[in-house]
């Protein structure tokens, strides 16, 4: 029987998994697994168990402890790991829902803008300025998605406005100052990725959506203003101009502003997830409890199991540290790990949808025959 081929189709072509799993998950030790995070502690606990068994059998008469101490310790370990994993997955799920809210707002605003952007007279046409203005704001809506993604990953988006008045040599020198590395936005994107670039000595991550931004747009990220909020100002300005052009009546313009506010609110909740780690006191105590439990376990099993205590401790350590490793992976769901939210694919799917709508609207506005769908009749 030939292998199953999964062909992605729109919508959700980029966010969906592109190929079936060829290796059962129980046999997978890479590509999404957390074994690289736990191999060191599991190995150390196994070696410690080997030492305990050796001393118990050859040096000391007995190192064993009553096995009844294990249940009391396991309750504490279980409660802490459950709390950690539930908290981490809640952050992951909330981040995914917020990304959906942002995408929904972009879809709603795009639909409303394109449907409302019509000439006052049914037989008339839009002016070139109105066409450019509408296309620009729709592209800005898509750029908001990319700007949110890059800000959550602590990456610069566009060159800062504070460098525009300096010569190229001075901009290059200032952009390499140590104070830049101390700014709230740190550069963590791998330099080898195709959509990164170097501008004025700063690594940026805007190549994938540079065509969506207005010409000459400069950022204020070095002064604390994120690009997503900066772009929403442009969107709000378009709503105001649309109201003056009588594209939107008062209640409709108010509802569009609500959509923009909802988008900003969802982004703010994503920022909260990104900038609020698990309390360090919990992390410290959890690490210490895991260490204590796995160090006591060899003494509680050596008398009953002998050398079999080594694989038993290894399995228990693998299980407990693996559960903790999953929580570590899900704590910040906006990165590049395979267990993080598929932000790249989700945003690319939304871009595909919006660009199709924009092309159909442009064809209709220009009176071309390509508008076969009749969406804007």
Overview of this structure, please?
The chain has ten helices and two strands; from the N terminus they run αααααββααααα. By secondary structure, it is mainly α. Among the domains are: 33-63 and 278-331, no CATH class; 106-268, no CATH class. The protein has a two-stranded antiparallel sheet. A hairpin with a 2-residue loop joins strand 1 and strand 2 (202-204). Helix 2 runs antiparallel to helix 3. The two termini are 49 Å apart. The model is unreliable at 169-205 (pLDDT under 50). Keywords: Ion transport, Membrane, Transmembrane, Transmembrane helix, Transport. This is Bestrophin, RFP-TM, chloride channel-domain-containing protein. It is a multi-pass membrane protein. InterPro entries: YneE/VCCN1/2-like.
Key terms:
377 residues, 10 helices, 60% helix
Task: Annotate the secondary structure layout.
Blueprint: H1 35-58, H2 69-116, H3 128-152, H4 168-175, H5 178-181, E1 197-199, E2 202-204, H6 227-244, H7 250-275, H8 280-305, H9 309-331, H10 343-365
Antiparallel strand pairs: 1-2
Helix pairs in contact: 1-8, 1-9, 2-3, 2-7, 2-8, 2-9, 2-10, 3-6, 3-10, 6-7, 8-9
* Unreliable spans: 169-205
Mean pLDDT: 80
Describe the strand arrangement of the main beta sheet, using strand numbers: 1-2
Structural class: mainly alpha
Number of strands: 2
Overall shape: it is elongated
**Beta content:** under 5%
Write down the Rg.
Answer: 28 Å
The span between the termini is: 49 Å
Residues in helix, %: 55-70%
Oligomer: single chain
Sheet bearing the most strands, described? 2 strands, antiparallel
Task: Sketch the topology as an H/E string, one letter per element.
Answer: HHHHHEEHHHHH
